[in-house]
Backbone:
């Protein structure tokens, strides 16, 4: 039994690595798609399209019979980088809109005093 475990240790480590990469990628996809929906009005259409295309490429890698952990991590990194860029722009747009809304509201409060 111990010998069997030793013989299959490399296979088990590779399988574990693949499972962890797949789980991480699925989490990245879910989070990214949720944010794409939440910030739909604030994301540039070309950035959104790029992220969606990368997600589809990642999904294809995940649907493979034997997903390659290294390839999945590479594609996941690309999705994360593109989405971070797109969401950074969206966050800045929302912050600017909130600041301009707060500025006009705060000047009204000052005038009332």
Residues:
């Amino acid at each position: 039994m111990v010998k069997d475990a030793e013989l299959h240790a490399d296979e088990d480590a590779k399988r574990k690595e693949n499972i962890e990469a797949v789980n991480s990628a699925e989490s990245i996809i879910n989070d990214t798609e949720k944010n794409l929906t939440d910030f739909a009005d604030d994301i540039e259409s070309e950035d959104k399209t790029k992220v969606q295309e990368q997600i589809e490429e990642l999904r294809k890698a995940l649907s493979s019979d034997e997903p390659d952990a290294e390839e999945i991590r590479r594609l996941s990194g690309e999705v994360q980088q593109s989405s971070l860029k797109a969401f950074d722009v969206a966050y800045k747009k929302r912050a600017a809109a909130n600041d301009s809304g707060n500025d006009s509201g705060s000047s009204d409060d000052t005038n009332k005093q």
User: Anything to note?
Assistant: Residues 69-112 form the longest helix (44 residues).
